[in-house]
Amino acid sequence: MLIRTVVITLNLAFCFICSYSIFTGNYYSLRSEHQKAVLYFQRALKLNPQYLSAWTLMGHEFMEMKNTNAAIQSYRQAIEVNRRDYRAWYGLGQTYEILKMFFYCLYYYKQAQQLRPNDSRMLIALGETYEKLDKIQDALKCYYKARSVGDIEGTALLRLAKLYDKLNEFSHAAAAFTEYVTNNEPHADKNEISQAYKYLANFFVKRNQVDEAYQYAQKCLEFEETKEEGKALLKAIAQKRSQQEEGEMQVEDSVSVIRVRPRLAEGTPNNQFTPMNLSFTT
């Protein structure tokens, strides 16, 4: 009975010390004291080399310290303990991305995504890697899926918009930016959303849709990053509006003289492009 009590007590002490080491390591990690954090994670691993979280967390700390070799070793040890730990696969993907070894990076992100098929972060990471490898269609598929499964970080639409802009598919880019600002306005990154407003304002200016352009140019004024561009856009919009009004007056004068307004042929398409038309085809 005494021996059993001693064993239970030792086990409890063992678990307490391991947990304390992890807790303390996390504490130092939050304070950006990464070297101290590593020491506490190493203490936990000396007591229990199978402590999965300690290996993964230590990999993160080595990443913060720019020690990629040590990070890779830590993540691989975590995978040895549990091959279904998506965090370790994802960490390896990030490490090889930093090393610009994108085919390795792609392999590890794929492993992470297979373990977390509906995690938008895995899909975004995959999409970015496909972009770097110039596999554009695969990148688009990843971003669309990230959008459909629930974009945790709110970046899928932003990635779609920027990629479509690179491809010179400006209507699709505007559609993505429109949905992005609509869905993310309250909590989006200020720089990103201000640039999205600027893009949309310029897009509609080029299409001579002054009402929509005015709406987004006004939004540009709310951000220091785009305030000056917003003022310049508003001046350009005012000039275009004035030109449109002069054109309308000339048309009205000519109609009043001729007294005949020709009708559009039935079925003539209306090419006006409004925000309501901005939708994706998936």
From TrEMBL:
SUPFAM superfamilies: TPR-like
Transmembrane segments: 6-28
Annotated Gene Ontology cellular component terms: anaphase-promoting complex
The entry's keywords: Membrane, TPR repeat, Transmembrane, Transmembrane helix
InterPro entries in the record: TPR-like_helical_dom_sf (IPR011990), TPR_rpt (IPR019734)
Mapped TPR repeat ranges: 18-51, 52-85, 86-119, 194-227
GO biological process: anaphase-promoting complex-dependent catabolic process; cell division; positive regulation of mitotic metaphase/anaphase transition; protein ubiquitination
Domain of life from the UniProt record: Eukaryota
Stored PROSITE patterns: TPR
Annotated PANTHER family: CELL DIVISION CYCLE 16,23,27, CELL DIVISION CYCLE PROTEIN 23 HOMOLOG
Protein name listed in UniProt: Uncharacterized protein
Naturally occurring in which organism (per UniProt): Cryptotermes secundus
Source taxonomy: Eukaryota, Metazoa, Ecdysozoa, Arthropoda, Hexapoda
